[in-house]
Structures are given as C-alpha cells and as structure tokens.
C-alpha cells in the first residue's frame, strides 16, 4: 500500500514547469483552498486534546502555522480526561478533538453515552501506546505474559487490578486483547478500572493497580520513576494499528464542510512535517514538553518519539513500528476496516449484544470524502485503491474486514453472555 501513497513526483515537476520552473511554495500551492467558495466557514476552530505524545499534529499545526495556511486558526483546548473530551465535544464546547478511536465509535453507538451522530475525519497516529506492569509484579517474577498468567491463576478472581483510559477506548481494547491472548480473561480473572492518562503513574505508585495501558509519555515516565516496566507495546499487539483520530459531530461537518477540509489539511501537513526528519521529531518532543501541552520533561518524550525503546528491565531496541503520523499520507487515511475492527471487539466483549452492520456503521462515521478533499489540498498524496487493509495481530489472527462477525465470534476468550 505504500506505493499507492508515494509522492507524485511527476505531478510536482509538471506543476513546477507550469510555473516557469519556480519552486512550489506552500502559499502558491494552497491559496485557492482558503478563498472564494472554498473559504472555511469558521475562522477559529476549537480542538480538544489530552496531554499525550500523539496530540503532536495538533501542536505542530497550531505553532508552525499550518492552520493559517488553510485559512483557519486552531484554538487548542487541553482537557483533563477522555470523559471531559466526550462531554465538551457532544455539547458543542469543542468543534473537534484528538480522541480515542473506540470512544468516537462508542458515542455513535450509544455505549459511551446516549447515541450521538459522530464523524472521524482522519487518523492522527498509529502505534506508540504500551502496557506497563508494576515493579511489585516484577519482584514476584513477572516480566512477561506467561508469568502473569501463572500468577493470576494462583490468585482469587479480581485480586489484581489493571487500568485503561475509557471503557470503549483503544487502551481498553489493547489491554483486553493482550490479556486474552495470554489466556487471562479481562472481565473474569482480573479487575479493570478507568484512570485518566495523566493520573496513571500516580495511581500505580500508590498501589491502586498493578498494570495499565496508556499512551506516552506515561509508560516512559513509569520507568523513569522506577515504579514499572514496559511489558508490551501496542504495536506488539497489532503492528501499525490505528490509535487517535480527529473526531467531531456529524452535524458540525455538514454545517462546516470547508472548515472540516481545512482542519484535516492542516493536520496532515503538520504530520508530514513531523516525519520529515529526526530533527523535526526532536523539536516536536521539545514543543510537547512545554507547560501548555504535556508539561513534562523532554527526555520522557524524545526516545519513543524516535522509536528508541528501553523496557526498563534490561531490553533496548529500535522499534520496527514506532509511533507514526504520516508515512506518505497512509497513516492519516480513515480506513473503513480500522473502524470495523473496533466494532468486532465491542461485540467480542459484550458491549454490542446483537450483530451490527459493521461496514455501514464504519462508512457512516469515517469521512473518507473529507479526507480526500483535504489530501488534494495538501498535494502529493494518492488515495488508497481500497477502503480495507489487511493486518496480522499478535496471536496470528488476520484482520481484513471481510467477515467481521465471524472474526468477532472466533476468539476462544469472550465475555459471557455476549
């Protein structure tokens, strides 16, 4: 699929020739998208975010002027929890948000609150989350999933508590999948609780849980504070998995189609800048460390932003699937099969009691039309030839969207009564 997203060098050269060989400056390439009938309906766009490394495209778009390039001004709003993001997005205090993929789908289906018509405008990143286990478990000889399974098997059900960030969110789905792949039932064998990302490390420190799944920098922070270690990255579970998306209300997109396009274009352009060089990634980490964004030490961000991992118990590696924001545009596309996968997990864990129309729901939420308009505005990105992609997960299962209900019901460990 990478070839489908490769930069169209011929197109750029032809355009350059048309301009008498002049360099194609951003302003020349995109000014038409911010004027006339294509002018954004709104000048200022309020976008919520949680202080996590993967809010990077929003920070860079705002601070590097990619928003102005497309005729809008981003107004970032730092939020304390995913529940706060949900509430402000639904009641209109936010126009859009950096949001968990599964949270957005949960809103649409009425399993994260009452049903709300939502829209996924683009994928903001892939990979880059992790599961942290406590130093307490390490002292008991637990450094991997088989050892964890053995310990839990020797204990009363619910004796050990694990945390994720939202009931229908990505971190819940990664945690459940990882535990189940090791023979641990995430509802019958252990207890799970919801904790906002910035509070994960503190809660582990005081003993409220022995494991958590969250985005960075909180896994790296747990290692630095010597209270835990990385047992698995989420790219171990699903290489190149979708993570955060740019979410909004369907009504807002219908009322502001040009603003929606401009917003997506600005964030795609920012994502491209981030991945243009290691230097840009380092600068992004420095920017994110500031008080207005993550308010943490730059050292907690840089390593994993660059794909340089240390699990805290002696293993170091350059990850083959680090956090990605662009990858020739491929990361940003709102694949229909990605959305369908979350529906299969909702079904697996009893959050959906009856078989949904997987593809229809995903096509309703994932606005590939807006993405394509935005990609055209940015330039140099070729849309994929299919709305579905194929992936192999940690347990060898292949997900390609072809039989979602069969996939959902194929797992040995499911929630009883689902």
TrEMBL record:
Localisation per UniProt entry: Endomembrane system
Gene3D superfamilies (alphabetical): Periplasmic binding protein-like II (3.40.190.10)
Alphabetical keyword list: Cell inner membrane, Cell membrane, Membrane, Signal, Transport
UniProt keyword Phosphoprotein present: no
InterPro entries attached to this UniProt entry: NrtA/CpmA_ABC-bd_dom, TAT_signal
PROSITE patterns: TAT
PANTHER family documented for this protein: ALIPHATIC SULFONATES-BINDING PROTEIN-RELATED, NITRATE_NITRITE BINDING PROTEIN NRTA
Family under the similarity heading: Belongs to the CmpA/NrtA family.
UniProt-recorded name of the protein: Nitrate/nitrite binding protein NrtA
Source organism per UniProt: Pseudocitrobacter corydidari
